[in-house]
Amino acid sequence: xxxxxxxxxxxxxxxxxxxxxxxxxxxxxxxxxxxxxxxxxxxxxxxxxxxxxxxxxxxxxxxxxxxxxxxxxxxxxxxxxxxxxxxxxxxxxxxxxxxxxxxxxxxxxxxxxxxxxxxxxxxxxxxxxxxxxxxxxxxxxxxxxxxxxxxxxxxxxxxxxxxxxxxxxxxxxxxxxxxxxxxxxxxxxxxxxxx
Length: 195
Hints:
The chain is an alpha/beta fold. It has helices at residues 12-15, 19-26, 52-68, 80-91, 121-126, 152-160, 176-194; strands at residues 2-3, 34-35, 74-78, 98-102, 140-146, 165-170. The chain has one domain (2-194): Alpha/Beta hydrolase fold, catalytic domain (Rossmann fold). It has seven helices and six strands. It has a six-stranded parallel β-sheet, sandwiched between helices. The radius of gyration is 15 Å and the shape is globular. The two termini are 16 Å apart.
């Protein structure tokens, strides 16, 4: 399951990352599925009534399972979608075997967030992935972030809280070029977790 970043849509995994090409080149039997979570939903329920997280867990995943018969799942997200992938994995850990987050849009406090990412400080605390890391204990977890990325410090702080996390913190920025460069390693980790 692929979760796009802010101001992108379900085509991002295909048009910018070329994830199906990465999977084909590496050879694992993995279906790539992506859904549009909204331009700035940050993949959690919002005060306006939209709920990208609920849609992902309660509508999209069952639809994919019905069509493909998939029983083992992983999440992969970029930026806003990286945050959403971590949040979904923490919310419903029994439904996934792995989660990979590319430059997840994380902040260590409500006052540091981007405008519109959360509806209020209480909304931030309700969907704070830092406070739920114990839910990831049974999953394969990977966080990739370039050292030139504005989320590098927060992503590093998050990774330090997850005992089983694989990380790749090296040269790179908050862009599709970096995300394409780490996609093969992410796919390999996901393939190993899915067995």
